[in-house]
Amino acid sequence: MIFGNLGNMGEMIKMARDMQNQLKKVKDELAKEMFEASGHGIMVKVSGDMEIKEVKIEPQAIDPAQPAKLEKNIKEIVAKALNEAKQGAAKKMKSVTGGMGLPGMF
What we know:
Layout: H1 2-32, E1 34-39, E2 42-47, E3 52-57, H2 67-97
Antiparallel strand pairs: 1-2, 2-3
Helix pairs in contact: 1-2
C-alpha cells in the first residue's frame, strides 16, 4: 500500500513546482508594476517588489524653517506608497497561492 501513495506524492511535487513557477512569474510582474502615493507636495513611486523608484518634491513643500515637517511628510508618503505596493503584491500572490499564507514572500 505504500507504493499507492507515491502517485499522490508525485502529484503534490508537480503541484508545488507549478506553484513555484507561477510565484516566480508573479514576482517578475510585480517588479515591473508601479504604485504611487502623493501629498504635501511630495510624490513617491514604488515597484511591486518594494523598491523605491522615484521621489519628487515640489519646491513649495520645502520650508527651511521647518525641516522636521518635511521629514515627517516624506516618511508619511513613502509609507503610503509602500503600503499600496504591499497590498497590490498580496492581492497578486493570493491569486496564485489561493489565500495560503506562505512565509517570507513579502
